[in-house]
């Protein structure tokens, strides 16, 4: 019912040849088997690449923080210290895996898996490009909200099961912060959903264009505000500074993962970095035009008909351009997230809750009403279209 | 394999487990867990009948409202539990014997 | 093939979770088993072509209700200070005993027999035709919610507001003079 990465590959001739060959060898219709294998491979690639992105995230964090503080940062392992995260990973694997004596063993073991599972489940709908997205679910945004809340359960359980004061406080703060900030995030997403009329990522992106004035970010004043509300709340939902109260080093040692060692700790850290990437990707898809490339450079008829590139390379080239566009914008936002972390001081708990319930939630509610009004009054046209119409009519037009 | 009787069987098992949890356990929160199971079995039944008998989506609306009711019930129920614990220092259902403190 | 695979795994998750809730003696664990059961039910919705319902189930239960329950279990488990933190970790009993379990099994037997008798002849009473293909339901549900079922929709929003305010008022810590009054 939904198009997916399989249906993109299924249009290519080699895929159909492989299906025919397999059917001939195995003696039954193997299109389902082939779809399964393709899907499995694609998911495998995506999960591994995102784990790599998470690892590189730790490197980027250290390097950028070093830049901001006039230090050098990691520079020993590999060129520019790029392989530092691999060295860290090896160290993590070799560490002793400690489970505290009084901890709740079952919950202690399952908590990091909840975090990692919730984050990896969101990758299923993250729109890398029009073809290479694992699935284009019709309820993509809603599904993403649902599975990403598993992270909150994981953080709470990690804090609770460690049976230590610091972990306990960190877990409580984490869970309450995540479920509080889900409200402004959801409301700002609904603002975009009202304007685009769909919950599917590909439709939301399809309505936007490649150039900044066609993005929802600059569509009208309400979406401009809602982008900032979304971004601030997303920072809080992923427990990034200035909202990293669950792991506030100065008060809580290390928060909910104080008692974790080795790979279990690495799971928590990896989940956090991948979640930041996912959240930045969602912000790009909803507000910054997603995988749209300026001037329709990635469209098939442009590459094929105008430039004369053959069919199969043109398809791949278009997808690669789209992935490049998406990843560039996402990494730019990722940089902003790290930049904010090393610039702003941490909030207090009461300031955190005040910001959520007294400022962000009313503002996003106001945005929701405003976007609905905009749909009603201007039929969903962007500010620029309206201005162009206005100048046309004032200047006499055609 | 995906047929109406199998869905009814699953929802039946959910319902009976919810019932057993509600009766057997004396912790108020455990009883709330049982209530959630029972509500879920009812919602699953609605969705299954919509799929297999009349394809007009009214069952989905019904399940949606059941989920809404379950959320409201959980919020108010847990608030009452926490208040009760503040007063009585206990969450045993047999300690809840008075209407007024 | 995929449908059957999803169906079987979600059904196993739902049933296994529900039975584990029954037999578990630790309330925190049984809450996690309940979470697994709810995720299984959400998978079953997917096989029923109810995609919006599945996502709603995930958002409401995983994101809201289960975390609320975990909080409530943690906040009400502190009567027996055996552990490091005030909110004890080992003493969260479901507080059942043999008598209540026997009672509940008897009740479940009676209820089960009567319900089974009702759904026994389901294949005779309902005509099962060809199943429609999987399709998305979001637009149709949205249309139905604001046309045919708009009254229930509005009332449920009032209900949710009432629940929100009521929960906040009930759980609010009282001042000293209020308690003694």
Summarize the structure.
The complex is a heterotrimer of chains A (398), B (101) and C (181). Helices cover 76% and strands 0% of the residues of chain B.
Structural commentary:
The complex is a heterotrimer of chains A (398), B (101) and C (181). By secondary structure, chain A is mostly helical. Chain A has one domain (42-392). Chain A has 16 helices and no strands. Chain A has helices at residues 5-10, 13-26, 31-68, 84-94, 105-122, 140-148, 150-161, 165-196, 201-207, 221-237, 249-252, 262-287, 300-306, 311-341, 349-378, 383-394. Chain B contains 3 helices and no strands. The longest helix of chain B has 31 residues, at 58-88. In chain B, helix 1 runs antiparallel to helix 2. The relative contact order of chain B is 0.14. In chain B, 76% of the residues lie in helices and 0% in strands. Chain C folds into 2 domains: 1-118, Four Helix Bundle (Hemerythrin (Met), subunit A); 135-174, no CATH class. Chain C has 8 helices and no strands. Chain C is globular. Chains in contact: A-C, B-C. The A-C interface holds A 1-2, 32, 36, 102-104, 106-107, 110, 137-139, 142-143, 145-147, 149-150, 152-153, 156-157, 160-161, 163-165, 168, 172, 175-176, 179, 182, 199 and C 1-2, 26, 28-29, 32, 35, 49, 51-52, 55-59, 62-64, 66-67, 70-71, 74, 83-85, 87, 89-90, 133-136, 138.
